[in-house]
Amino acid sequence: MSDTVKTSRHGPVTLVTLDRQHVRNAVDAQTALALYEAFLAFDADTESSVAVFHGAHGHFCAGWDLQAGAKMAEAAAQGKGPFSELEFEPADASPLGPMGPSRLLLSKPVIAAVSGAAVAGGMELALWCDMRVMEQDAYFGVYCRRFGVPLIDGGTVRLPRLVGMGHAMDLILTGRKVEAAEALQMGLANRVVPTGTACDAAMELALQLAKFPQRTMLADRMSAYRQWDLPLPEALHQEWERGKHCIADGVAGAGRFAGGEGRHGKF
Fold first, then answer.
1. Distances from the Cα of 120 to the Cαs of 11, 19, 61, 150, in angstroms?
2. Model confidence at 115, in pLDDT bands (50, 70, 90)?
3. pTM above 0.85?
């Protein structure tokens, strides 16, 4: 286990904690690798259904550690830098991103519990998650705009898909601060909760997801991710191919409904 990335199991939920307090949980190369390994381990854990990702000490993640980055750039200028290790081909099964897991498509959902700053690469990590539970005084922002640092952990891809091109261009070009109320309005946040409660609220949500029939939920989730580049007929076909294996589960669920379970939208 890394000193800066800690994991713990809570029943069917894995909690992944980013802990670099002195830099508001900014990520350096070692921490990126630790995050990557932690989420691959979660994905391989057959006893864990959902992960919650949060930052310790009141901040989600302030992005890439620019001081560490400056040292890496100096080393790279001398031919000693590790940047080449981050090159990847789209066909790579488990590509490592500069922020760690940002190029992975896991088989199970991850919920971000966002407190304090989730900016630059930290915002990209939050975008990588399936859902974002945000505290009322937390904030997003492409703060790296000020320093000419590019978005290379999915920000230019996931943000337009999540909030639409208009909102995305506003945030990408200006780098401005986005507080919780606006984030909720544009669809960047899924839930806004009181300060200090994001992790608890995300854990509660994760436990709710873990109670659903998992095979069907995961098939629907993956279909939603895989449909982006497909023409409509192919997207509908791959939805059927994933869903048809779960029809027996649906028939069993219909039987439970007929027996009185879950009436009137009750969960």
1. 32, 17, 9, 9
2. very high
3. yes
